[in-house]
Amino acid sequence: MTAGTGDIEKAADVLRAGGLVALPTETVYGLGANAEDPAAVARVFQVKGRPPSHPLIVHIAGAEHLGDWAEDVPETARLLAERFWPGPLTLVLRRGRRVPLEATGGLETVAVRVPDHPVALALLSAFGGGVAAPSANRFGSVSPTTANHVRAELGDAVDFVLDGGSCGVGVESTIVDATGDVPSILRPGGVTREDLEAVLGHPLAVPATSAVRVPGQHPSHYAPRARVVLVEPGKVVAEAELAQELGHQVGVFLPPSFAGAQVKAHAVVAVPGSMDAYARGLYGFLRELDQRGCDLIIASLPVEEGLGLAIANRLRRAAGPRLSE
Ligand code: TXA
Ligand code: MG
Predict the structure, then answer these.
(1) 227-319 CATH fold
(2) Which residue of 45, 86, 147, 262 has the fewest CB atoms within a 10 Å radius of its CB?
(3) Mutational pocket test of ligand 1: of 31, 47, 57, the residue with most ligand atoms within 8 Å of the beta carbon
(4) Matching Pfam families, A to Z (predicted)?
(5) Does residue 211 have a pLDDT over 80?
(6) What is the Cα–Cα distance from 199 to 195, expressed in whole angstroms?
(7) What are phi and psi of 84, to 5 degrees?
(8) How far is the centre of ligand 1, averaged over its atoms, from the C-alpha of 259 (Å)?
(9) Is the pLDDT of residue 322 over 80?
(10) Which of 317, 248, 264 is nearest to 286 (CA)?
(11) pLDDT band at 246 (very low <50, low <70, confident <90, very high)
C-alpha cells in the first residue's frame, strides 16, 4: 500500500526527531536520516553495519537547493542536474555548508541527488532539509526494492517505513564525480553511460569491472547469501546441472536464449530480455533464490550497454572476490 499524506507528515516528524525513515526511491529503498543531524546519521551507519568512512548520498527536493549542499558547482554538473533530475543520477561535488563530515565519511566532497519518486519528493518537501540515505540493507547485502524487503531485513531498527510500491528502476543511481574538469562515472546505475555521453558530448571513463580481483581487497557487495558464480551465457544450463548433480541447491539465472528450457536445478529465474525489466527484477530475483534455499546461483553477464552495464557491475560485485576468471 502506498504512503498517504498522513504518513508523509509522520515520516517528516520522525526525521526532525532524529529518527530513521525507510523511503522509496525510483532506484531502491533508502534508509534516511536528517543529513544535518550527526547523531541520526551515526545511527544509519550503526543499523546498516557500515564502516563510518563509507559516505552517504544526500537526497534533496530539487536542483534549486543544490547551492545549500554543495559548493563551487561546475557548469557541467549543473547541466547534468538540469537534464537528469529528478532521476537516478548522483553528483559528487564539493561539500557545502549544510553537510556535516559525519555524512561524507570525513570527505570534503558530497554525493547529492534528487530522487524521481512521488513519495520521496513529498517527504523531502514536507521535511524541508536534506535526507542522508544509503540503500536500506545491511552492509554488503542485496538492496531492497520493496517495503517488505526493508521490513524483512531491518525490522524494528527503522522507526518508520514509507511504502511506495516496487522501485521502477531497480538498480541504484549512477554516481558521477563532477568535482574536476572532466566528469567520470564512479558507479554505473540507472542513468546510462550513453545518455550521459549524449548530453556531455564526449566519452566518459567507467571504472574497471574485471572479475579478476586480489582476494581480500574487494569484499562482495550487492550479494545474496548464496554464492554467485558467473559463467558464459552458453554454459549456464550445463554448469547449473553439473553443480546440482554435485549436491548443490542451484538457482539459475536462465538467459533469454534458453527461454523455456527444462533445467535440472533447484530453482530457475527466467531473465527478462529487456534490460529495463531485468534491472527492475534483479535484486528481487537474488532475494527469491535465497528464500528458496539455494546455496549457489549460476548466472551470466548481459551485454554491457545501457542498463546492462549496471546489471553486470552488480552481478560481478555479488560474485565477489575470485582468484581468476
Ligand atoms: O540509488 C541510490 O543511489 C540509492 C538510493 C537510496 O538513493 N542509494 C545508494 O546509497 O545506493 P549507498 O550508500 O548504498 O551507495 C552510495 C555510494 C557508496 O558506494 C558511497 O561510497 C558513494 O555512494 N559515495 C557517497 N558519497 C561519496 C563521495 N563524496 N565521493 C565518492 N563516493 C561517494
Ligand atoms: Mg548500497
Answers:
(1) Rossmann fold (3.40.50)
(2) 262
(3) 57
(4) Sua5_C, Sua5_yciO_yrdC
(5) no
(6) 7
(7) -110, -5
(8) 35
(9) no
(10) 317
(11) very high
Whether 111 lines ligand 1, by a CB cut-off of 6 Å, is yes
Residues β-bridged to residue 296: 227, 250
Residues of the chain with CATH 3.90.870.10: 5-200
101: pLDDT strictly greater than 60: yes
Ligand 1 atom closest to the CA of 56, numbered from 1: 25
Best of 31, 123, 172, 317 to mutate for ligand 1, by most ligand atoms within 8 A of CB? 172
CA terminus-to-terminus distance, the chain: 44
CB 94 within 8 A of CB 122: no
Scan for cell 528450457, then name that residue.
261
Per-residue model confidence as pLDDT tens digits over 255-310 = 999 999 999 999 999 999 999 999 999 999 999 999 999 999 999 999 999 999 99
Whether 150 lines ligand 1, by a CB cut-off of 6 Å, is: no
- If one looks up domain 5-200 in CATH, what number appears? 3.90.870.10
User: Does the beta carbon of 192 sit less than 6 angstroms from any atom of ligand 1?
Assistant: no
Residue to mutate (ligand 1; options 29, 113, 135; most atoms within 8 A of CB): 135
Q: Could you report the per-residue pLDDT of 162-184, keeping only the tens digit for each?
A: 999 999 999 999 999 999 889 99
C-alpha to C-alpha distance for 324 and 213, rounded to whole angstroms? 7
Cell of 28: 531502491
Whose C-alpha lies nearest to ligand 1, atom 6?
A: 30
Provide the pLDDT for residue 209: 59
* pLDDT for 199: 97
pLDDT score at 181: 82
